[in-house]
Amino acid sequence: MEVKLDGKRALVTGAGKGFGREIAKRIAECGAETFALSRTQEDLDSLKSEVPNINIINVDLQDWDKTREEVRKVGHIDLLVNNAGVICRIPFIDTPKEEIDRLYDVNVKAVFNVSQACPFAWFEYYLDSILFLFEVIAKRMIEKGKGGSIVNISSIASRTVLPGASAYCSTKGAVDNITRCMALELGPHNYGVFSIRVNSVNPTFVITNMTKGQEHTVSSILERTPMGRFPEIKDVVNAVVFLLSDESGMISGESLRVDGGVGVY
């Protein structure tokens, strides 16, 4: 299936590496004007050299006010991918406050912040600051009256707990519930003339720079995977692009597992 996103404007967070980088590249290939956000300038520079027509935004999502300021500069957005995420593998009893704060700042609060700040063409809505990204972008969507599509990168860890990852698993459970709440509140039954769809993509373990070297820690997941292998980055990218596109026009509030079938257990 060939997906066309011509005439759309898209923002991808965590676009310097891994999922986000490949998602941003694919969206640009599909014809959308693409904005790639990352805290690492070096990653953005290499992405820009690889795909010259991509716009880059250097900001740390843990800086709430600066993130909101930079996102608002983008202008109208039709498509948003809240991809940025961090993980830590520390036993529950030893997880320090600093790590909990870091994971919630990036994995959860940044979803609120960016979504709220993004110019998704909408009137001033009463969203709380929990989804900063959602707030900024969704408001613009409503103001412009065109609607759009938001995809949050979650994980099977939202439903399948992993030992030594209690903080991470809890953030992904939050992302799934945020996704459903946003789909309910931003759907066309509230606004009539436009629709903002919100879905999540929930991959199993995928080998990226962030997860490389951790394969042994998830061997039990692979043993329970009917397809007998972990997905590749392209499998996640394909799911995201489908949910962004008009081909999924009646899909909202869903968590799409990309897990080789392990979710059947």
From TrEMBL:
The keyword Lipid biosynthesis does not apply. InterPro entries: L-xylulose/Carbonyl_redctase (IPR051737), NAD(P)-bd_dom_sf (IPR036291), Sc_DH/Rdtase_CS (IPR020904), SDR_fam (IPR002347). One of its GO terms (molecular function) is carbonyl reductase (NADPH) activity. PROSITE patterns: ADH_SHORT (PS00061). Keywords: NADP, Oxidoreductase. GO terms for biological process: glucose metabolic process; xylulose metabolic process. Homotetramer. Belongs to the short-chain dehydrogenases/reductases (SDR) family. This is L-xylulose reductase.
